[in-house]
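Ticket #4471: structure output looks truncated?

Reporter: J.K.
Steps to reproduce: submitted the chain below (150 residues) through the standard prediction queue, then opened the result file.
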Amino acid sequence: MKSSADATMAASRALLGHVARSLQGALEHVTLPQYRALVVLAAAGPQRMGALADTLGVHPSTLTRTVERLVAGDFVTREAAPDNRREVVIALAPAGEALVADAMARRRDSVAATLERLSPDEREAVRRGMELYAAAAEEPGAPDLLTLGM
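Returned output as attached by the reporter:
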């Protein structure tokens, strides 16, 4: 009999497959770290550079280079903070919003197609199990944009 950890590992491989397939188009335009920044901005809205660096767990100088590339690609905008001109606020541009929305729609469609293979009772069991696992992992209750599998 499989342990809970073994079953969860198998499911995580399946979920990672959904993630990888959903990112194929996006990763033609941005790197994975750049995409992570776009996802955080899509989920949380405009962010000061320091807050975004903290959320992503990167050094501010690393984020500066990432943001420069995203600005050059028209995926984000960079402006001085209204209350402190020394601070910079990063926000999604329409191209960044579209890139994240497309990847998330692909992922949701892929997951939904897999779940359709199950009976309604089985889908409910999966839903409940995923909620329990997310709670045990202390996953924030934010939109699924933050749950990238990264």
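Triage note (M.O.): checked the attachment and the full token line is present. The chain has one domain: 13-146.
Status: closed, working as intended.
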